[in-house]
Amino acid sequence: MSVVALLSVAPVIEDSMASDVADAVAALDDFDVTYETNPMGTVIEADDIDTLLAAVGAAHKAVDADRVSTFLKVDDKRTTDQRAREKVEAVEAELGREPKGE
């Protein structure tokens, strides 16, 4: 089984959020998850939902602000084991190229 999620954690402020986002991402290192940050969030992968949710909770708590906004989208495949990279590779195969434009 594999669980893949898109996570975005940020303080609700007008200034730069980079430091707070870095704190949230660093909190993931304490868990058995893999992750990759992109401009819109962080893709997290875990073997089970409990591990993923514990990591998300820690990331949320790591942002020290008066107000924190967290967005989480979860794909919990319970009958197959498809990793995040395999999802991208399937789109690449259909396109016949990398799924990005310049």
TrEMBL record:
Highest taxon listed in the record's lineage: Archaea
Annotated GO CC locations: cytosol
Region (Disordered): 82-102
Thiamine-binding protein domain mapped to chain residues: 7-92
Family: Belongs to the UPF0045 family.
NCBIfam families in the cross-refs: MTH1187 family thiamine-binding protein
Protein name: UPF0045 family protein
